[in-house]
């Protein structure tokens, strides 16, 4: 792609140079790029190269593309499956928007392609597509090549018979030692013939060559599967005449190890006592360690509960009949992940008694882990949002009744302090529900256009006091940071939470370093991140010199209620709140940590393009209590009895005439009876008929009715869902004062 792209860019650069240097008085239509040059350059690439214009038309393609994708159409209009076409459509849109896009794999017939898309041209009027075939490693071909080559000849000289068997049981390749025993000569071709025709088994399970009859010597077979997802597919068979004194077992083992080391399967040889004799690089790669770091015993790789099963299986397969099987184990370094360990007995290889196998699926495992983690986080977020919503209804009732009781008591009364204490504790619980909503990205935010250095400066004094005397706060700001759009209060909470976590990780004191930095599109491209979209960002980093986070905990730190602190020290909601606020603000957060070296959190907030932040004049208006007395007819629609009762009593005290309904259908029935109201105060989520559906029906039948929605979910999310104009919003939980103010303001709306 590099050569093709370079030529295309050079061609378009030349066109652009001609355009800029042409005398201004001469208005000549510029010729299009010379596609013949582009096509000739694209021919040098081994990938399928195509260029499409903004109308989606194919304007240039090399021969690899036209042969692989018939029809002379540009992506995404290729003859591929629906899932691949959806990926191509999304990649094209992302490339027009961000400049580049990438797809790990699409499928065309039985072949897969990786896709890269880049915007190109002087006016970015083209898309350059590169579809590179994913060359799958053909293990079967590798085995055939080795058996037919030098390694096969060396094995034959040591008395080891090697044969590759296809999935249908036919011989694909065999060395001279096997051919000589099976046919009596190594000059006659044996490939393509059924392997079973040359073998027989007696009643004791011993295996012999059919040609040698009953006087033949028994052989032992070592079966190495060449299909990593099934045991009955293609295989490499190593046969040894265990009773033949001429076989030098040490030499045989060396040749077998040489063969196993070249296969991309995780394979290892173990003796009867369960000690490693040999392991190839693929085996160590599955375990995420080096070969030199392997312990002496395979059982030391798994958790304590699985050690006995591994040891027992090795002894059983190493001393009994030459069979094979799989056991499920959990690695000590990845206890949450279950993997399959293949165990097969071997004979005739000296001390080697057992062959162990692990599938090298590190990339697949990583992808599965990321998908599982994302699914889990989304599920927990939905659960947290639902719990917070229901709990907000209870808190609304508790806080409301406290307010009503406080109106009947004066400071100094015996019950006044107790009621006030109940209300204060309820407000503390309400802050916890806000954290749950923040994690689930359903919190009500009040975003503003602001600069990150200003937010850090506002919170620095508070943070210094919270960090204590043993922790030093350092702040450094970069230049030319773009503005971001976020809730300043929530952003301050992010900084405080990260600072407090850093303090708790430094028992003996240390340094917390906060920095801001501008990150350009080129910087993002250089990072090569698969998560961070191409764009301009303002980076906020919080780094500490603490104890660090162990690798096994790093993937869990943003989960709610996960904490490594002692019982009673923290709720485990701090980092989950940070995660929710950052994601709801359109940003991205990454954590890097090393035990003993500290931790760094990087928060990328997209630069806001639009109006600049308004200048702060320094003037502050003092709050003046509103005259909340009013008149008019109000309908409260709420399915929770306790919330409905509190809201009704609060508004009746302010002078309104109030009626209630338990759901949207009951509210519509009241209007159908001829009743009319100046304002409808409604919950959003209700059984039978929800608030937005009721509101649309009311306005369709009875005109532009004033609406005030109350809910524990985020206002921004609700406004997108409701899609109604001239609607007021009251977040739960609310006090008597707050619902009175919200109703007063809604009644004043034109």
Describe the protein in words:
This is histidine kinase. Its EC number is 2.7.13.3. Helix content is 39%, strand content 23%. The protein folds into six domains: 35-134, Beta-Lactamase (2-Layer Sandwich); 139-241, 2-Layer Sandwich (Beta-Lactamase), CATH 3.30.450.20; 264-359, Beta-Lactamase (2-Layer Sandwich), CATH 3.30.450.20; 365-438, Signal transduction histidine kinase, dimerisation/phosphotransfer (DHp) domain (Helix Hairpins), CATH 1.10.287.130; 443-606, 2-Layer Sandwich (Heat Shock Protein 90); 633-748, Rossmann fold (3-Layer(aba) Sandwich). Mean pLDDT is 76; it is low at 1-32, 244-249 and 613-625. A hairpin with a 5-residue loop joins strand 12 and strand 13 (276-279). It has 750 residues and is an alpha+beta fold. The protein has a five-stranded antiparallel β-sheet with strand order 2-1-5-4-3, sandwiched between helices. The protein has 22 helices and 28 strands. The radius of gyration is 36 Å and the shape is elongated. Helix 14 packs antiparallel against helix 17 (574-584).
Keywords:
6 domains, Beta-Lactamase, disordered N terminus, 750 residues, 28 strands, five-stranded antiparallel sheet, alpha+beta, 39% helix, CheY-like_superfamily
């Amino acid at each position: 792609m590099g050569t093709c792209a370079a030529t295309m860019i050079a061609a378009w650069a030349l066109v652009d140079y001609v355009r800029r240097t042409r005398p201004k008085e001469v208005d000549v239509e510029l010729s299009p790029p010379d596609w013949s040059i582009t096509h000739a350059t694209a021919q040098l690439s081994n990938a399928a190269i195509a260029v499409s214009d903004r109308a989606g038309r194919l304007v240039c393609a090399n021969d690899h593309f036209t042969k692989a994708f018939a029809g002379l159409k540009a992506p995404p209009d290729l003859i591929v499956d629906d899932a691949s076409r959806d990926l191509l459509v999304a990649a094209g849109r992302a490339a027009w928007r961000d400049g580049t896009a990438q797809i790990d794999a699409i499928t065309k017939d039985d072949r897969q392609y990786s896709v890269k898309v880049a915007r190109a041209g002087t006016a970015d009027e083209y898309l350059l597509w590169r579809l590179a075939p994913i060359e799958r490693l053909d293990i079967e071909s590798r085995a055939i090549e080795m058996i037919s080559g030098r390694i096969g000849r060396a094995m034959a000289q040591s008395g080891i018979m090697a044969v590759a068997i296809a999935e249908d049981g036919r011989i694909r390749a065999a060395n001279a030692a096997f051919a000589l025993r099976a046919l009596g000569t190594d000059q006659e071709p044996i490939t393509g013939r059924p392997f079973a025709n040359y073998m027989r088994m007696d009643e004791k399970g011993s295996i012999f060559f059919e040609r040698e009859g009953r006087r033949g010597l028994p052989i032992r077979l070592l079966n190495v599967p060449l299909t990593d997802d099934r045991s009955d597919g293609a295989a490499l068979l190593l046969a040894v005449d265990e009773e033949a004194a001429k076989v030098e077992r040490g030499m045989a083992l060396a040749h077998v190890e040489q063969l196993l080391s070249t296969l991309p399967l995780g394979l290892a040889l173990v003796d009867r006592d369960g000690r490693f004799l040999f392991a190839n690089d693929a085996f160590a790669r599955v375990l995420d360690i080096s070969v030199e770091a392997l312990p002496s015993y395979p059982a030391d790789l798994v958790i304590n509960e699985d050690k006995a099963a591994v040891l027992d299986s090795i002894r059983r397969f190493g001393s009994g009949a030459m069979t094979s099987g799989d056991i499920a184990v959990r690695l000590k370094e990845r206890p949450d992940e279950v993997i399959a360990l293949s165990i097969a007995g071997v004979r005739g290889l000296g001390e080697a008694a057992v062959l162990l196998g692990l599938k090298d699926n590190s990339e697949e495992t990583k992808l599965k882990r990321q998908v599982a983690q994302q699914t889990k986080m989304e599920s927990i977020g939905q659960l947290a949002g639902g719990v917070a919503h229901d709990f907000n209804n209870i808190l609304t009732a508790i806080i409301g009744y406290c307010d009503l009781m406080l109106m009947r008591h004066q400071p100094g009364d015996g019950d006044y302090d107790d009621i006030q204490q109940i209300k204060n504790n309820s407000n503390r619980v309400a802050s916890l529900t806000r954290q749950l909503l923040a994690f689930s990205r359903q919190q009500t935010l009040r975003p503003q256009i602001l600069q990150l250095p200003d937010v850090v400066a506002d919170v620095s004094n508070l943070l210094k006091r919270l960090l204590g005397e043993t922790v030093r706060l350092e702040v450094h700001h970069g230049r030319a940071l773009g503005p971001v759009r976020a809730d300043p209060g929530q952003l301050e909470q992010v900084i405080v939470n990260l600072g407090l976590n850093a303090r708790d990780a430094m028992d003996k004191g240390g340094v917390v370093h906060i920095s801001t930095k501008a990150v350009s599109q080129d910087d993002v491209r250089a990072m090569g991140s698969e998560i961070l979209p191409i764009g301009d960002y303002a980076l906020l980093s919080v780094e500490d010199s603490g104890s660090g986070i162990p690798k096994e905990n790093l993937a869990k730190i943003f989960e709610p209620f996960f904490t490594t602190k002692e019982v009673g020290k923290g709720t485990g909601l701090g980092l989950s709140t940070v995660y929710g606020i950052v994601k709801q603000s359109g940003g991205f957060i990454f954590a890097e940590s090393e035990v003993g070296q500290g931790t760094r959190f990087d928060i990328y907030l997209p630069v806001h393009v639009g109006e600049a932040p308004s200048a702060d004049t320094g003037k502050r208006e003092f709050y003046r209590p509103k005259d909340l007395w009013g008149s008019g007819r109000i309908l409260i629609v709420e399915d929770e009895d306790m919330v409905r009762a509190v809201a009704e009593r609060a508004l009746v005290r302010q002078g309104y005439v109030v009626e209630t309904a338990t759901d949207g259908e009951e509210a519509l029935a009241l209007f159908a009876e001829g009743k009319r109201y100046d304002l409808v105060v409604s919950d959003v989520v209700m059984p039978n008929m929800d608030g937005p559906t009721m509101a649309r029906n009311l306005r369709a039948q009875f005109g532009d009715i004033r609406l005030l929605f109350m809910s524990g979910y985020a206002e921004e999310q609700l406004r997108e869902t409701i899609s109604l104009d001239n609607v007021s919003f009251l977040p739960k939980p609310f006090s008597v004062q707050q619902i009175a103010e919200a109703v007063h303001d809604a009644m004043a709306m034109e």
